[in-house]
Amino acid sequence: MLKKALILAGKDIRLMYRDRGAVFGSYIAPIFIIIIFGIIYSGMSSDDNEWSIDLLVIDEKKNERSEAFIAALTDEDVFEIMTTDDSSGEEIPLTRDSAWELILEGDAQLAVIYEATEANPDFPVLERPVITLLYDPASDMERQVTAGLIQRAVFMGIGTDLPVESMDWVLDELGVSDTPTGQLLTEHMQEWMQYMEDEDAGESDDDTSAAGMDMMMENMIDLRTEEVVNPDVQMGNPFMANSSAGIIVMFLLFSVSYAAATLLKEKQEGTIKRLLMAPITVDSIIFGKFLSIGFNSLCQLTVMLVLASIVFKVHMLGNLPTIIIISLATVAAVTAFGMIIAALAKSYDQINAAVTVIVLTMSAVGGSMFPRILMPEWMKTLGFFTINGWAIDGYLDAIYRFKGPGSVLGYGEASNLCEVVRNSEALVLVLFAVICGWIAARIFRRRLAS
Amino acid sequence: MSVPALRIRDLTKSFNGLTALDSVSFEVADGETFGLLGPNGAGKSTLINILSGVLPYDSGHIEYYGVEHREPTVEFKLTMGVIPQEINLYEKLSARENLEFYGRLYGLDESILKSEINEKLEMVGLTDRQNDRIGTYSGGMKRRINIAASILHSPKFIMMDEPTVGIDPQSRNLIFEVIEKLNEEGSTIIYTSHYMEEVERLCRNIAILDHGKVVAVGTRAELIALTEGRDTIEIELLNETEEPDSVLKTFEDMDPSFGEGSLQLRTVEGSRKVSEIVGRLANINHPVKSITVREPNLENVFLHLTGKELRD
Question: Could you say which of A14, A339, B166, B306 would form a disulfide bridge with A440 (CB–CB 3.0 to 4.6 Å)?
């Protein structure tokens, strides 16, 4: 029995290794995916901070402390600090209103405002800085990272000075600053703050001091967060909306790629041959296939959007005209992309391998699996070459920024061509569809001719 | 003299350096059923694919009804019905749904489409199964629907690429009847096969194709004349010979060969020479178990022209 089983196993192994698609799917695809995920995860945990957050900074206070705080923020490698708005061609200092507008338009995600609060006249040195973090609800991950780093910047910039200055002020008021007791208290306070600083820099392993520091930080500053939203929009759950948009596009890519395999089925079963003999052109055949796959995708997309609205309380359908435009453009791009895979593939194994590698890679790089903020800059740039990246941005524009259909089609306000393109998600997706469709048609024609 | 339905001159086609068709030339008269006979790999399907516009050709000249054909146009395809070797039907659709789909591709109006479908279903004997999915059909039934789908638009020129491959005798006979009926109604038909009986039954003129070349064209009688009227005599010996060379030498005037366990001879007036042959074998101590004399057919023609059997 064993001998026969070995013969059978030998045959199966030989067949598998002669199928390039199966070998690719078994070995190359996982290696490729592991590399992609590895890059993303290493980018997230790297001390080199290969990823960055664009941060608008408004200093309304304009005193030593606020400047020290902004300097500490600037020292954080992860932040790309912007204090001026150059969209009009001139560098105009940012204000609360202009920052709000930039975030609302999707041109920025976060802004930190060092508020110009009035100091307590009785205890001026004990002024508690008020820092407001304006954020785009579509960028929840960035908000969390930034909030943590603001606390660190407060501590690094003004944290050690504030208690010491406060102690000095109290001692002065009591008239004991020059006494040995006063000097001793000041020294102890400085030593203690140094200890805290070391702890924050990771040079101490005392957990209690860390907890004490957190508590102190919470009391030392008044950190407020404020969602930048259109008042007419019902937001729903921002995290779920972000995730839903990404997942919907990823699943759509998967299903469309497999649906496009019907083209391969037509080739393999010979029905395509009869179609070629019929009085229709090759372009009609390809376009017909595009329409049928596109229709199915649109139905699928609609079901997923409605489900996301109902189950996850995401207001996916709140801005219906723009959602429709983005959905149609996404379906067109995804369908045309699936057609390329179908035109290239010679077997179902090849389709499986190609879909696994390409769709997972596009989804990872395009932001369906991880927020793009966590990726290195080069990978973010790569995200602009994915359907996921543009589709997710388009949905977020529709859901959070309540942009009109014209805006995602390139009719929005913009200062330069790059910005026009960046804000024209639907237009880019349609362009993507046209290019993919043209490539698919060319491959398909060439394959048929041979 | 009327214009031929199809005229081919020096048609050549290569795939990756391999010549599939080599200077193929022949003519098909309007209203006839023309046979293309050849073994598998002879180039029959390539020729049909070129004639139906699916494949481009490298060089040569094709004329349909006196008009040169280079690129297949929609108008050209409307006049043509092609029955490919593969069954090109959608398994999950019923026979009627398949026919409706193909009929609409050919632009048939809904009322005409309905009557054409009914007529063609009747013609191929599958009216009672019209609403069943193709996936539930036998191979023969699928082939019959495959034919119906290709002739819904009543084409005047029909090409059939081995439409009887792998089917039961009942379906084969029914397909023959359909072909004869279509021909009677005026359609010009090109019929390819590697079964010489089919070609002999259906076709008036026949082209024999081998390795992409037309080795002979003509009526059945003209082709058989190429064998100089020699009959084939198949002799089964009582005992297996240990001296085949001596046997072959004994009959060197009758083009002898051993094949499939029997001795084969080719000679004119074979039936008159049976006793002489038996005598010669007796002289070399090879008693005969059975002897069959066959008049020349296209199989013999093919053997005569190419040195091999049609099914090699």
Answer: A339
